[in-house]
Amino acid sequence: MTVCGYCTGQCRGADMVPLLTEELQWLWDALAAAGDRRGDPDLTTGHLDVTAPTTSVERAAAVGLLGGTPLRAGQRRRVDLPALTDRLHVRGSALTPGAVAAHALCRRLATRRAVRHVLEQRVEQIRSVLERQITDLPAAVRDRFPLATAWERLRTTGWITRLAAQADPATLIAHAVAIVGRLPEPDTRVDRRTLVTNRPHALDDGTPLAGLVLALAGLSGGRARTSWHSLGVDCDDLTGGLHMLGIHPRGWALPPDVVVTVPPRELRRCSWPVPPHVGMTVFVTENPSIVSAAAARAAQSGAGIRLVGTSGTPSSLEIDAIAALPGAGWSVAVRADFDVAGLAHVRRILSACPRAKPWRMGAADYMTSLARDESAVDEDEPMGHVTERDTPWDPLLARVMVETGKPAYEEALLAELLDDMTWTRRRPRSLRRSL
Fold this sequence. Notes:
The structure is a single chain. This protein is α/β, with parallel strands linked by helices. Helix content is 43%, strand content 8%. α9 (169-181) crosses α10 (208-216). 34% of the residues are buried.
């Protein structure tokens, strides 16, 4: 027996051809909307109001179904659904208004409410599983990750919806909560690869399990390595780190034009050498392209450039390493792109290293960059939301960026940056002006 894709069999043996006309489509559209809204696929009880169409042909086609009284254009007419059902039985003994409307629209009615009901049930099951799993945690862990806080974190980060779409959300929740229970105590650390027995890659970046653990801990949306670090969890300590030119951990010996990446493992335990001249500056940049250009300048001219590249968002460990430079006697000058992320990088480094200075990060520098950088005037490239709190070293910078609404990038100032970094035993006059 063939199952109808639009109704539950009410159409069997019915003659709906006279009902499924173009002139009656307006009526079935109104009935379908009511069925979806009510969650009622049959529409055999109660009543609803419809608005008569403007064309006389469409109004006339519905007169017989709606009780025989002529309709005026724009008139509101109350439809008695039991009476309409009786009139449809002339065409099929089991026909309902909802069944005819479903065939007119070529889809089932009231599925949205059913889907929403299923989703609500699934969400409640997820909450129940999460509550049960957290209740089983030791009291000290529950104090760190209370249920109400955890649930709100999942809700605001979209994780409730993501869990509802999982084939087995209960298992994923159980694994994530178990890992939360194994997070290290304050002032102790563990390797991320050891948190899941015999599965060293279970918490690799991008996996649902890793994302859920960080969401439960309230650390969604940030840089994963930084978030894990704040929980006392070390990712592999050999990838990432800082690109360095002319400045290396104490005891290292490298040619002055060689760029080396100092990994997190070494940053955690290294100390910095004393500068050969009082007041020498270590420059900090965001983009690897600036580091490459500086290395080429150093190789060509023999200039003693000291440069640190964060290659994007710096981790807390990397910021701490930069913040330790003044303690060894170095001056620090920091800059990044003129966009929301770049401003955040500079702000975090300046906060951790109060003796550091912004480097060509003023309003005038931004306008110069904007004028030179063709990509910065791309209408399709938004800058993001900026306020004066984002540029405490120069509130005018934020106002100008808001007015233009465009990002600008470090490479636009490359010539000036290279001149600033070129060490000639005295700090260049251009640099003194820019800091």
